[in-house]
Design goal:
Layout: E1 2-4, E2 9-10, H1 11-19, H2 25-32, H3 42-54, H4 61-64
Helix pairs in contact: 1-3
The protein binds FE2/S2 (inorganic) cluster (FES).
Amino acid sequence: MYVCICRAITDNQIREEVRQGASTLREVGQRLGVASQCGKCGKHARSVIREAISNRPMQDPLIWNPTV
Ligand code: FES
């Protein structure tokens, strides 16, 4: 489904950017251009980002533990 009409960006494209590591509207906007024209899609794009983050698989804690 289209989230950003101005830039023709879909929810699946946003989810893919979150899978690739983006976690904020600013980061997704820099990568895709979402919310960079009229800005009306920002609220919906944020909700897609939040939902995609909550569904992101947990990272291996050993990779992120600086004491290991
Ligand atoms: S709908 Fe996304 S910038 Fe206009």
